[in-house]
Every structure is written in C-alpha cells, then in structure tokens.
Amino acid sequence: MKKRALIMMVCFLICKVAISQTPQETSDLRILSFDEWSNKYSTLDDKNKIINAVSICELTIDGKRCLDNPVEVKLNADSKMEFKNLLWYRWDIQKKRWVKESSPKFRIDRNKKNGAYYTAINCPGVYGFFCPDEKLNSGLNIIAPSGCKILTVSVAQKNPSTAYNALYEKPTSKINIPVSDLQFAGFIDVEIIDKAGKHYGLKKNLIGAHIDLRNGFDRCESMNLKISRNDLIEKQNLSNK
Amino acid sequence: MKRQIKVNAVLFMLGALSILSFKSNASDTTKVYKNILVDVGRKPEVLDSAAIDAIRTASNDMFAADFVTVVYSDESDKKCADKLGYLLLAEGIPPSRIAMEQTALTTNPAGKIIKSGQVLVYYKASGVEKKNPTTLVYNPDPLCAKDTLIKLENGYSLKYRICDYLLKSGVPAVRSIDPYNNNEKFSETLEKYNTVDASSILAFFKIEKLANDTIMDEVLIPYKTSMSTKLLTMEYFDANSRMWLPAQFKYPRKAINERQSYLCCPVSTSGYYRIMALDQNKNALLIRAPKGTAFTSASIQKSVYCNWEGTPVNGGTAMLFLLPKLTDDMTVQYSIIDDNGKIKYSGVQDWEHMVGHQFKIKTSSKNYGVVHGLKVNFPAKGYQVYDDFDNEKTVTLKQIK
C-alpha cells in the first residue's frame, strides 16, 4: 500500500515537472520590407494571377506550433476606400503561391482619426494584405535575342508592389509574365545563356530603360520586350566589376 | 512481483493520462469561455424568447465575469447586437463591462465561428479577462446609439454622437461661408485663401472643435441630385503650409435624410474645408515627362495658397491632376528619373516655361487614372514638360533591389 502511495507521489511529481518544463510559447510578428520579400515571394495567387502587395508580415513561433489565442494583425487605413477589395493571403510553401485566407474587416474608432483593417492568425508563416489586380492584360512578353535562351527572370516594382521571380528548368526563348502594370522605376533582371554557354544579364535594370510606357498598358493587350545583344552584359564581367 | 509490476504500470498509465487531460484542459479555451449564440431573425431589432431566456439564466454568471462581449461579423447584425447589449444592461450588467466587437470569423477567444446572421455573447467563466480599452467600441448608453443632428445656417447640419462629447467641455460648431457673397464677414486673409474659381466651390465651411479633439463627425450639406455628374473633392486649409490640400480618402458621400439629399463630409479636425465640384472632362490635366524619363513627383501650385499633387499614370511617365481651373499664374515643380536611375529636380518654374508643349492623347477613351480616389478619364490633350532644368540637381537613385 505504501509502495502504491509512493508510486502515485512519483507520478504526480513527474506530472508537475513535465508541465513546468513545457516551453513557453513565444511568438514574433515582423513586417517584412519590400527588399526582404520581393526576391523570395512572387506576388502570384494560386490562379497564377498577379496580386498587389500592400503589407507582408511573418509570424514565427517557438516550437513551430499554432497558437491557442490568435495574434491580431492590423493595417491602418483612413477609410474603406483606401484599399478596395483588400484580401488576406498566406504564402503556401509547397505551391509557392499566395493562397487566399479571408477578407479583413474594416473597423473605425470614432475617438480616433483613422480606422484599420483587422485579421487574425494562429499558425507560423508568411502572410500579407493584398489587393487583386482589376486590369485584364495578358502580360509582358520577354523575347531573348536569337541564339540565346532565358534562364531566370526577376521583376520587382513598388506602388503597387509586385514581384515576379522565375527559374526555368528548360531555358526558353520567349516567356510571359502575367503583370498588368509596369513602373518606369521598377527593377528587371533577366539571365540569358547563349549557345556557347556564356551567361548574360541586362546592362540597365530599370524597366523604363527597355520599354516605352508612355502609351500605357491597354486592356487585353500584351507588351513585348525584345532584348537585343546590345542590352546584355556578360555575367562574368559583372562579377569582375 | 509480476502483479506488483502490473499495478505499477497501470498507475503510471493513469498518471500519464492525468498529465494529458490537465494539458488539454489548459489549452482548450472553449471550456473557459461560456457562450450564447443567437440567430438573427428577419427582424434584427426583435430578439427571440429563447435568446432572452438564455441571457437571463446566465445573467448571474455574467455579472461575476470581468467582461461580457457581444460579437457580430456582419454590419447588418448590429441592430440585434445592440438589442442584446440593452438586454444585458437590463439584467444589471454594469455598462463598463459590456463590450461590443465586430470581428473576423475565428478571432474571438470563445473559439466560436460566427457567420453572418448570428451574434455571439461570450464571457470568461473563471479567471481574469483583460480587454484593451480601445477595443471597447460599444458604449452601452442607449443615447449613444443615436446620432444627433444640429441644423445650422444655410441648411447645413452637423451630425455627431452625444456620448462622444459627454465629458468634453463643448460640442463642435460649424459655420458655412458663401463664396459668392462678397459681403461675407470673413477676414481678408481668408479671402486670399479662397484662390480658386468660386463657381467650382460647392460648399465652404469652417468647423471649430476642441484643441485635442479628433473625433470623426459629419457635416451634412444640402445637395441637389442634378449635380450627380460632377466629381467631388474635399480640400482643407493646412495651417502649417498655409495651403489648400486635398483631404485624401475623406470623401463626401451622398445620403438622404428626412427626404432631403445631403452630402456627408467627414471631418475630424478644426479648420476650413471646401467641397469642389469638378468635371472629369474639363478638370483633368495630364502632364507627360520627356521621352526616356518618368516623374517621381510633380505638383502644381497656384499663388501661394493652393497645391495639387499629381498622380502617376502609365508607369510614372505621366502625371494626372484634377484642377479647378487652368490659369496662367500656375507654377509647376517636379522631379524625374532617367533610364540610368538618376533623379533630376526642377526648380519652381512658371507654367508657360515648363509645360508649353501640347500633344494629343490617342487612347483618351480607354485610359483612366485614379486621383484622390476618383476615377478620372484621360483628357483629349496633354502637356509635355521640356527637358530643361535651369535649377538642376542630380542625385543617383539607390537601386530598388
């Protein structure tokens, strides 16, 4: 009988120790800067359409478990009109696309000047507020010079913030990027390989240096960017610089 | 001995199970929070008897809780939520402990999913619950649920909530100013502020609020429906820069109150405001950057009191403005980026010198831009700035990545 009582006591102590040793969950929500996210996460949804990023954040949790109580995420806005059709997306690591989670609710505090959009998250990951692109353009065609093929392409621009990064397993001479708006001051880089196996990049990385945007993107039309040999600089030379 | 080992094993299993059950209880918030889910019927202002009974049965427990929170997900369910708030008051729950929240589907601590057409009442049955005071958006005083209208001169009305000003020393005051009436007794300085063509000013008023008061109220201005084709923008006089600036994202909207159409103008701070009725065909102005460049910013000034910021269109190669009237005394200031990433800044240049070259816009019917939230069609003609920088300053743009 004493032995049983002793064992019960031991069990109780084990329980207490086990509970007290459960690591305390600590979570950290961090806003990612444009430079941080633009070269990692293309702003494409699971239907392969470009979406405009408003704000992107990362939730990290010790132990990689989901939280019991969600973390509230807030995006300040003057009014509902500021971000029309704002949506909340999660980065899907397997699909490598943004997947829609919910529509954030807008609430305005009468005692304060501005309102905010609110949403909540439990699980670790990369999340973001996005606005869908309303335009219906068929995108930007990038055409490599003759005898060359495109290996990688990366486009990043602000206002609205979009990013597109692609690595082609089979190098191709023509690619289509589903962007619907381009900024003169946006960044573009294309890695090209020629028949001799030499790697080239663009001499100038501003979108405006390669495309005349003065007439804008018309609906349902695509824009062509024909790269000539003169636009290219050998990658080896770049690294030597 | 074997028997003893079996008994010990069973005891150990029981111990392990007790750990698991203890842990699951600790993490399961649904057992800590009690909740009552109410379905909103066809008439949201009428509560069904089952909901009333459930609230009354739980009222003693609710009284002991730190907070009782009423949650709804859809704005259309707010009336029902308000009714539940009044019922809680009637059951003796102190007003300071009733919270009302409009939240996303799964954000409430009770862990219940609230759909449209449902209102949830929850409270923490045991333990302390703390709430951020700023989230307590609901003031359960029934007076606060109603907006108050005060009619002023020229049919202007001020709309505010009584409770927002209960502890304040005074309510805001609005004075309408007639831009057509030269005998209006406003100071000579203010007259200078009003530098735009008076015919485009739909309303001009001054609101006076307490020094640190930034509560959002609405000024209602009588509005004829025949003017619906006009574009409306609201501007405020910025006392620091002494300029009229667009009140961005604070749009006037139309509303009907007591069979009269009004413009509802949200205002939060003291000062002078004016509502401009602009025509998108007459008042849109497009300025194009020289070939191979794009604007990084551009603004147009008139005298020293008006400033309009341009909105970039076509990737920044052009700027779109919405101006009351194009006059010769306007000046332009801008910065452009070239394809090498260098930014050039113009000085303040007179209109004639900077935008003298006019060009036709081919795709005027297709293209549009958004200026201060208003969809604006491109005009048929635009101006192109000269690539001429008298006061040129050149800096190298840090590459975007």
Would you mind describing this structure in some detail?
The complex is a heterodimer of chains A (241) and B (401). With 241 residues, chain A is mainly beta. Chain A has 3 helices and 16 strands. Chain A folds into 2 domains: 106 residues, no CATH class; 102 residues. Chain A has a 5-stranded antiparallel β-sheet. A 5-stranded antiparallel β-sheet of chain A has the order 11-10-13-14-16. In chain A, strand 6 and strand 7 form a beta hairpin. The longest helix of chain A has 19 residues. Chain A is globular. By secondary structure, chain B is of the alpha+beta class. Helix content of chain B is 18%, strand content 37%. The radius of gyration of chain B is 30 Å and the shape is elongated. Classes of the chains: A mainly beta (241), B alpha+beta (401). Chains A and B meet through helix 1, strand 6 and strand 7 of A and helix 1 and strand 16 of B.
Distinctive features:
heterodimer, A: 241 residues, 2 domains, 5-stranded antiparallel sheet, globular, B: 401 residues, alpha+beta, 60s Ribosomal Protein L30, Chain: A, Chondroitinase Ac, Chain A, domain 3, 3 domains, 18% helix, elongated
Low-pLDDT segments of chain A: 10-23
Count of DSSP H/I helices of chain B:
7
Query: Which regions of chain B have little confidence, pLDDT < 50, spanning 5+ residues?
Result: 17-30, 182-189, 394-401
Per DSSP, what share of the residues of chain B sits in E-state strands of 2 or more residues? 35-45%
The first-to-last residue Cα distance of chain A is 83 Å
Beta-strand portion of chain A reads 35-45%
The value of Rg of chain A in angstroms is: 25 Å
Which structural class best describes the helix and strand composition of chain A?
Answer: mainly beta
Helix and strand pattern of chain A: HEHEEEEEEEEEEEEEEEH
Number of domains of chain B: 3
Total count of helical runs of at least 4 residues of chain A: 3
Q: Compute the average pLDDT of chain B.
A: 72
Most extensive contact: A-B, 60 and 62 residues
Give the overall average pLDDT of chain A.
Answer: 82
How is the main sheet of chain B built? 6 strands, antiparallel
Shape, per Cα inertia axes of chain B: elongated
Oligomer description: heterodimer
Number of domains of chain A: 2
Classify the secondary structure makeup of chain B into a structural class: alpha+beta
